[in-house]
Design brief:
The chain is α/β, with parallel strands linked by helices. It is built from 23 helices and 15 strands. A nine-stranded mixed β-sheet has the order 1-2-13-12-7-6-3-4-5, sandwiched between helices. It has a four-stranded parallel β-sheet with strand order 9-10-8-11, sandwiched between helices. It has a two-stranded antiparallel sheet with strand order 14-15. The chain binds 1,6-di-O-phosphono-beta-D-fructofuranose (FBP).
């Protein structure tokens, strides 16, 4: 038997909380339908692409006084995309709901992400299997993957696998791209009269799968608390030794929600927010000027140390970089089959080929970058066509440019301090942490609720659990049609239906909290030290949600 750490043993025993409406099980629920819905944008195109699943109402569940009998069902589940703490609890919640409804029901897990349903690679869960993963981090129960489900052939193969296993519903646990896949599969199954429902669950540490119906994606709570702990520890180190400037890149592929939340929990000296950079059309050199200005002012006060937070996706939001990367994305496909590029003997030759293919303005931007960054920008795109920003060391690019500028200023006598930088990237450290109590409860509820949606005959819906700053018993369970969150966007050079990403709102209360305080935090060290996630102890410490959720719900967070 595998040896377990003391915390592992204790967490296995934790019983996640459910919204009161779900506590009596899925057989005792009444479904209340809301109004018909519309997509967030491009209604005409989305309706045309999803004629069978478009326009359905939102739904909410209430406990019913009567209890119905549930027939035995076989359900399949897929974990898709990047890991996020709590994924195992979504599966545990789904399993428990299914078995409580009818013990003869079966849950199959498709292995390695969406490719598992295409290739027919699966496991069947039983109590012992599920019990070993309750309240644990990671997606290792069945693995994950980023295969994009979109072709006729993939759909046909998925149908054949489901038929073989007598599966009548599939749950896809994923982010915006994976739930776009879920919407397409749901539509395809209805169109082909397959009798298979598809339900999504909102996952991603990035926190960008949210809207009026989905308050937050799971994993954001735990990941941001993990990063905040690490940032707090570094702040204490910096404040003790008083000799380093720490540049910390924080994961979150596009939106800056993760960096913003981690900053609100820790109050560092500098926090860059990609959405602000884009809105103010800040160039790379103006970002460097902003940072250098703070470093010089702090040095004047004898403080040659500090903390700067950089969101992972920053580079794509700097206008001149974004334009260059988009041009680069367009030429990447041709470069991948270009013999001159493929057979180039040195990386410098590759850079030259790229510069010759880019538009003149973009070529200039590309050639101005250090070789390290130029090379990283040529790394493979992910299956959805995204640049893998986690592989681009923006923190090192910024350090190099800041150091160069300070050297120049030193020569002019405008900087007399010391600049000794350290770079960090906090990303993978947070994605598989033991889920916080919030994520453990939220994920279990999302999974349990996914089966309530299935049992009520819905398809093309995302599991929704709301009112998240209240105690779990007051959470509201229901469902939201996936098409409601969609619009058309350019992918691989073509307009495609996709779930709209939620970016940081610059006129919202969360960004305002940073904007109102950052001048003070830059000069006067107001560091907060959140410490490690606590699983046992007072509820005021163990069950609190993020500052983001509290501010969005107009509550005054304890941490700020
Ligand atoms: P999802 O959108 O699939 O949840 O992934 C989020 C993420 O963690 C990003 O923050 C990060 O840029 C990316 O995954 C890294 O991907 P990979 O795990 O493939 O390196």
């Amino acid at each position: 038997m595998t040896k377990l750490s003391p915390l592992q043993k204790e967490r296995l025993k934790y019983q996640p909380k459910l919204p009161q409406s779900l506590e009596n099980g899925v057989n005792s629920l009444e479904m209340i339908k809301g109004k018909a819905t519309q997509s967030v944008g491009d209604q005409h195109e989305i309706k045309k692409l999803f004629p069978n699943t478009y326009g359905k109402p939102t739904v909410e569940f209430k406990t019913s006084s009567s209890s119905k009998k549930s027939e035995a069902r076989n359900v399949g589940v897929i974990l898709s995309g990047g890991q996020a703490p709590g994924g195992h609890n979504v599966i545990a919640g789904l399993y428990d709901a299914l078995k409580h409804s009818n013990p003869d029901s079966k849950l199959y897990g498709f292995l390695g992400g969406p490719s598992g349903i295409i290739d027919g690679k699966y496991v069947e869960f039983d109590d012992e299997f599920i019990d070993a993963y309750r309240n644990t981090g990671g997606f290792d129960i069945i693995g994950s993957g980023r295969t994009k489900l979109e072709t006729e052939e993939q759909f046909q193969k998925s149908l054949a696998v489901c038929k073989k296993l007598n599966i009548s519903a599939v749950v896809i646990i994923g982010g915006d791209d994976s739930n776009t896949n879920a919407a397409m599969l749901a539509e395809w199954f209805v169109k082909h009269d397959a009798g298979i429902q598809v339900i999504g669950c909102p996952k991603t540490i990035d926190g960008d799968l949210k809207n009026d119906q989905i308050e937050i994606s799971f994993g954001f709570d735990t990941a941001t608390k993990t990063y905040a702990e690490l940032i707090g520890n570094i702040q204490r180190d910096a404040n003790s030794a008083k000799k380093y400037w720490h540049f910390i890149k924080i994961m979150g592929r596009s939106a800056s929600h993760v960096a913003l939340e981690a900053a609100l929990q820790t109050q560092p000296n500098i926090t860059l927010i990609s959405e602000e950079v884009q809105a103010k059309k800040m160039s790379l050199s103006s970002i460097i000027d902003y940072i250098v200005n703070i470093i010089v002012k702090r040095a004047d006060q004898g403080k040659n140390f500090g903390i700067a937070i950089i969101p992972e996706g920053l580079i794509e939001f700097i206008p001149e970089m974004g334009s260059m990367i988009s041009n680069l994305n367009d030429i990447m496909a041709t470069l991948e089959s270009d013999p001159d590029f493929l057979n180039a003997e040195t990386i410098r030759q590759k850079f030259e080929i790229v510069e010759n293919r880019l538009d003149e303005k973009n070529a200039k931007v590309y050639s101005s970058l250090p070789a390290l960054i130029k090379g990283q920008l040529l790394a493979d795109r992910d299956p959805h066509g995204n640049v893998q920003v986690s592989k681009i060391e923006t923190e090192k690019l910024i350090i190099e440019m800041v150091a160069n500028k300070l050297d120049d200023m030193k020569l002019q006598g405008d900087f007399i301090g010391k600049f000794s930088p350290q770079s960090h990237f906090f990303g993978y450290e947070g994605r598989c942490a033991f889920p916080s109590n919030f994520d453990a409860d939220y994920c279990y509820s999302l999974g349990y609720n996914a089966y309530a949606l299935i049992s009520n005959g819905l398809t093309g819906y995302l599991s929704s659990v709301k009112n998240l700053t209240a105690p779990a018993s007051e959470w509201k369970a229901g469902g939201v049609p996936l098409t409601m969150m969609m619009n058309m966007e350019k992918r691989h050079g073509e307009m495609k239906p996709v779930i709209k990403k939620a970016l940081v709102e610059l006129d919202g209360p969360v960004f305002k909290q940073l904007a109102d305080n950052r001048e003070d935090w830059a000069m006067n060290d107001r560091y907060l030290f959140p410490g490690a996630i606590q699983y046992f102890g007072p509820s005021s410490v163990c069950d609190i949600t993020t500052v983001t959720l509290q501010l969005e719900h107009q509550k005054q967070p304890a941490a700020v």
